[in-house]
């Protein structure tokens, strides 16, 4: 990326992130944040952003890698996340969860079991640290995918609000999503500008999973007709969440 283009890109990205921070007040001095980092591009961008903001605000920060016990690449990914923390002087924890056990005991589907156990592990770690915030790396493409996924499921109108910028995990801990204003393509440019490497999860290409089918098949077709479809879907989700009748 040419120097001028790099400068313009980062100005645009930081303007969006600053706007999100102004609206949601994700970062406050002294309020610790546990950042969930898988090693993928979104989570590495999140980790770098959290690290950068922790130097400005400042606030305590820890990164955490959740090992679902399902993929042989987990050990390498955990080591990669540890290397990020070492480079930045940020502590890293690695937590292993028993997804296979949950599948047998609770009768959950694989994705649902991973999600439930992952958030439970994040909550427990945040409470152990005394941190009021857990940050995850969902971005605008994820938001659009979630809105379409919920639409396909035929859910109630409230579910079309997709993912809120913040929600409660417990009485004392909130989940925050600081990157919702950025597109996946912008995340990749951010990583390129800051010369950050990342790991790719091959399961994200499995078209048997509906979310992946939406990501790789449906959204590209919609973008051919309307390049702003991601922004529009995210905007609709925001409007749905703002309806007082749904938040009452």
Report on this model:
This protein is α/β, with parallel strands linked by helices and 248 residues long. It has one domain (3-247): Rossmann fold, CATH 3.40.50. 56% of the residues lie in helices and 10% in strands. It contains ten helices and six strands. It has helices at residues 3-24, 41-56, 74-88, 99-106, 110-129, 140-153, 184-193, 210-225, 229-242, 244-247, and strands spanning 33-36, 61-67, 92-96, 133-135, 166-168, 174-176. A six-stranded mixed sheet has the order 3-2-1-4-6-5, with helices on both faces. Helix 2 (41-56) links the parallel strand 1 and strand 2. The chain is globular.
Beta-strand level of the residues, as a percent range?
5-15%
What is the count of DSSP helices, taking H or I runs of 4+ residues?
10
From the coordinates shown, what is the CATH architecture? 3-Layer(aba) Sandwich
Class in CATH?
Alpha Beta
Low-confidence runs: none
Could you give a short description of this structure?
The protein is 56% helix and 10% strand. The protein is α/β, with parallel strands linked by helices.
Write the topology of this structure.
Elements: H1 3-24, E1 33-36, H2 41-56, E2 61-67, H3 74-88, E3 92-96, H4 99-106, H5 110-129, E4 133-135, H6 140-153, E5 166-168, E6 174-176, H7 184-193, H8 210-225, H9 229-242, H10 244-247
Parallel strand pairs: 1-2, 1-4, 2-3, 4-6
Antiparallel strand pairs: 5-6
Helix pairs in contact: 1-7, 2-7, 4-5, 6-8, 6-9
């Amino acid at each position: 990326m040419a120097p001028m283009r790099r400068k313009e890109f980062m100005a645009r990205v930081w303007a969006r992130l600053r706007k999100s921070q102004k609206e949601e007040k994700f970062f406050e001095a002294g309020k610790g944040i546990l950042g969930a980092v898988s090693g993928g591009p979104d989570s590495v961008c999140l980790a770098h952003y959290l690290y950068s903001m922790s130097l400005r605000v400042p606030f305590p920060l820890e990164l955490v890698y959740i090992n679902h016990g399902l993929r042989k690449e987990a050990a390498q990914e955990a080591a990669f996340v540890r290397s990020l923390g070492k480079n930045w002087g940020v502590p890293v924890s690695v937590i292993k969860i028993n997804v296979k056990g949950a599948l047998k005991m609770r009768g959950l589907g694989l994705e649902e079991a991973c999600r439930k156990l992952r958030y439970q592990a994040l909550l427990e770690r945040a409470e152990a640290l005394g941190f009021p915030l857990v940050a995850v790396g969902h971005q605008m493409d994820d938001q659009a995918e979630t809105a379409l996924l919920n639409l396909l499921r035929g859910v109630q109108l409230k579910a079309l609000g997709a993912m809120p910028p913040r929600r409660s995990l417990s009485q004392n801990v909130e989940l925050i999503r600081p990157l919702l204003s950025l597109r996946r393509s912008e995340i990749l440019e951010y990583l390129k500008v800051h010369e950050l490497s990342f790991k790719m999860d091959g399961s994200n290409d499995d078209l048997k999973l509906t979310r992946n089918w939406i990501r790789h098949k449906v959204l590209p077709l919609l973008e051919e007709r309307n390049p702003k479809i991601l922004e529009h879907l995210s905007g609709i989700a925001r409007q749905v969440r703002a309806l007082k009748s749904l938040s009452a």
